[in-house]
Design a protein that fits this description.
The protein is of the alpha+beta class. The protein contains two helices and 17 strands. Helix 1 runs antiparallel to helix 2 (282-317). Bound molecules: calcium ion. Residues 106, 137, 139, 141, 167 line the site of calcium ion. Residues 29-253 form the L-type lectin-like domain. Residues 1-17 form the signal peptide.
Length: 318
């Protein structure tokens, strides 16, 4: 089975190509293919290998995945099939909320939750969820003094209930107003970056193309369950709008240390804080990681080839 060795080498080569360096030299990223979704979204079997959808979700392979349309009482979802297991990650989503109505709603949610594909009243997903929800809320139910659309994060522990009547004000972790996000002439995107025990940051793009606005950043990020699915959902009631996901790009982030990396002191939350690894000699950590990966791949290919030879000898014998 020379093929096994060759395919292992090919995998290694593509893994290499997917590694990116960031500007500050301390954070590197690898694309998570399992959580990335782009046009045409579906393969030849009219299904997606990595994502599943349901409810009123419509897939237009050349344009978008529409979670809820400009019609009353729509409810749709899109969820990853496999959990997101990366410790640190970045998820960038291009979306579009649009419509002709002067009164519209309700918005959509992005999820990192234990549950997947369960319809319910929180932007189309179940209430009392466990994990993190990011809500892009376009309809102000009752939150005086706040400009809508309003984008907010909520952390659910499985018991806390999202209160739609005041747009989740009491359950809010952090958020921001995003006037002009709906029916924007430029592409609209969100980018959520999570470093376990270190930071959670949400950025938005809706005013000018390629210009990110910081929505919030916290150095006390929530604990996200170890098994979480990445998902999206949307719901319309009497008022409606089109809620589209255009693309999802997920990356695994690695901190490799370096001079400009901040080293926060021990947090007050017990032993949960893990400092960034390898502050001195960060490039060494990265080098050693690559060497180990290289030998693992070569070793894997060799083992596969030896097994094949042994198997062939046996086959010949009989
Ligand atoms: Ca609302």
């Amino acid at each position: 089975m020379r093929f096994a060795a060759l395919s292992a080498l090919w995998l290694a080569a593509t893994a290499w190509a997917a590694v990116e360096r960031s500007d500050d030299g301390n954070v590197r990223s690898i694309q998570l293919r399992t959580h990335t979704l782009k046009q045409p979204y579906l393969d030849s079997d009219m299904a997606s290998r990595w994502y599943d959808f349901g409810g009123d979700t419509i897939v237009r392979t050349d344009s978008y995945i529409r979670l809820a349309s400009e019609r009353p009482s729509q409810n749709g979802w899109l969820f990853s099939r496999v959990p997101l297991t990366a410790t640190n990650w970045e998820i960038e989503v291009e979306f579009k909320i649009s419509g002709k109505n002067s009164l519209f709603g309700d918005g959509f949610a992005m999820w990192l939750t234990k549950d997947r594909g369960e319809a319910g009243p929180v932007f189309g997903h179940k209430n009392n969820f466990e994990g993190l929800g990011i809500f892009v809320d376009t309809y102000k139910n009752n939150r005086p003094g706040t400009v809508f659309p309003y984008v907010m994060a909520m952390v659910g522990d499985g018991k806390t209930t999202y209160n739609k009547d005041n747009d989740g004000k009491d359950q809010e972790l952090a958020g921001c107003s995003a006037r002009g996000l709906r029916n924007s002439k430029t592409p609209t995107k969100l980018r959520l970056t999570y470093f376990q025990d270190k930071s959670l940051k949400l950025e938005l793009m809706y005013k000018t193309e390629d210009e990110w606005q910081l929505c919030f950043e916290t150095n006390e990020p929530p604990t996200i369950p170890s098994v979480t699915y990445l998902g999206f959902s949307s719901e319309t009631g009497e008022l409606s709008d089109n809620h589209d996901i255009i693309s999802i790009e997920a990356k695994n982030l690695y901190t490799t240390g370096g001079s400009s990396s901040k080293q926060p002191t021990t947090s007050g939350r017990g032993n949960s804080f893990k400092p960034a690894q390898g502050q001195s000699g960060g490039s060494w950590t990265w080098f050693i990681f690559k060497v180990i990966l290289f030998f693992l791949v070569i070793g894997g290919g060799y083992v596969g080839y030896t097994a094949y030879r042994t198997n062939q000898k046996r086959t010949h014998r009989f």
